[in-house]
Amino acid sequence: MTTVDTATITVELPEAFDPRWNRLPGITVDGKKITLDPAEYFFRFEANTWLVIDWQTVTDGLLSADETETATVEQMALEFVKAHGRSTSDAGEVLSIAYQVYSYLFRDEHLATLGLPDITAEHLKMLREAATFMALNKVELDGHISNVGPCWFFPSATGVVFDLSDEGGQMLDEVYHGGWFNEHRRIEGIKAHAALGGRLVHGCQSKPDQTGGVVAPYGASMATFGKELAEMKAEWIEQVNSYRVTAA
Fold first, then answer.
1. Distance from C-alpha of 244 to C-alpha of 238, rounded to nearest angstrom
2. Would you tell me the crossing angle of helices 121-134 and 166-174 to the nearest 10 degrees?
3. How many angstroms separate the Cα of 172 from the Cα of each of 83, 105, 178, 211?
4. What average pLDDT does range 91-117 have in this prediction?
5. pLDDT reported for residue 48
6. Helices in the chain by DSSP H: which ranges?
7. DSSP code for 139
8. Which of 30, 139, 187, 233 has its CA 20 to 30 A from that of 218?
9. Is the sign of the CA dihedral 8, 50, 204, 190 positive or negative?
């Protein structure tokens, strides 16, 4: 059996993260510096390699590319990953690239056309932070879910960290899962997620139901993914919820 390196993960990002992330085990946020203890942070941590592309490479070579009658945006992203993707065991680098991806996708300029007046710039900051942590989750090509952290369970984790009500957490989850996206932003998302080696997929059914999302490699078995997700989530969601701070 392969031994997974559980050395401490450290990264300094351009933006200070909310200190309330420290409520979750294994996360230490000190301004822009983030430290993760994999042994405490992950519910399951079986793989410490990730497929990534430098964000500047994606910015220069893919973000401005146009879909054609013979080349869909998904095909373009897949070919770009094949051409430029590389494996890294530096989880800090994954977090750094993820922060760039989600700073682009959840940028304030979209607020004017979002059509959700209750979503503010502060909500977008919450999305950027939570999605950055979610980039360490991992699904293998056979659909096996190899890495699971608390941010997989998006409404629970954001509720704990940002003191959101159940309704507030679900609203944020709705934005993350699809309410945010029109077709233009969906295309942006496909291109941007090439930097994290795949495409964003969700385990939810007809509405956000705590089964979260992950950037999965193209070709991953969604049948196996869905089956594993259904079997694993209840106990871990309960555990995440237990860290919520309640008023005295």
1. 11
2. 80
3. 34, 14, 10, 14
4. 90
5. 94
6. 38-41, 55-61, 73-84, 91-105, 111-114, 121-134, 154-162, 166-174, 183-192, 222-241
7. E
8. 233
9. positive
* Type of residue at 239: Q
Region 28-33 average pLDDT: 98
- Contact (CB, 8 A) for 13 and 157: no
SS3 string of 83-97? HHCEEECCHHHHHHH
Q: How far apart are CA 163 and CA 172, in angstroms?
A: 12
Helix axes 154-162, 121-134, angle to 10 degrees: 120
Question: Which two three-digit tokens encode residue 9?
Answer: 């993960």
Q: 154-162 vs 166-174: helix axis angle to the nearest 10?
A: 130
Angle at 220 between CA 218 and CA 84, to 5 degrees: 30
CA angle at 54 for the pair 49 and 59, rounded to the nearest 5°: 145
How far is residue 239's CA from residue 233's CA, in Å, rounded to a whole number? Answer: 10
pTM score: 0.93
Tell whether the model's pLDDT for residue 1 goes beyond 70.
Answer: no
Do 48 and 91 contact (CB within 8 A), yes or no?
A: yes
Q: 140-162 pLDDT, tens per residue? A: 999 999 999 999 988 889 999 99
What would the two tokens of residue 142 be? Answer: 């056979």
pLDDT in tens, 2-25: 556 678 999 999 999 999 999 999
Residues pairing with 148 in the sheet: 44
- Whether the pLDDT of residue 204 is over 90: the answer is no
**Residue 50 clears pLDDT 70, i.e. is over it:** yes
